[in-house]
Amino acid sequence: MRTISDGVFTPALSFSTTDPTGLVYGSQDGRYVKIGSMVQFWAKIVLTNKGTGGVGDLQMSLPFVARKPGAALVGQCLAVTFPTGMEQLVGKISANSGVMKLIGNDSAGAAAVAVTYAEIANTTEIEVSGSYILAE
User: 49-59: string of b/e by CB count within 10 Å (b at 16+)?
Assistant: First the structure.
């Protein structure tokens, strides 16, 4: 018998090298449904100040650590400058990770470039949904 649970979590942004000082959220909302080892999630973050001094790739926290790679659909993304040549954003979840990186893809899906601190603004809004397998 599989266990089914649902709940809320507080998504947060971090950066692969250095987190900024003074980052301020307008809102942080997250929900998940867990069926056995599968997690389905939705998260939305709204910034009112991106702070200063952030360096590296943009990451968003997940409700649980992933065992296997997963993906997320970026449903809304406001006040983010797409990396050069990129036309759409997706969320990349790596194995054994509790964060998802935002990645820009070109129209052919051949190239992928991470969104960095420099490409977000004080008013950035990011809404994502996705699924992945839990770490054991």
Answer: ebeeebebbbb
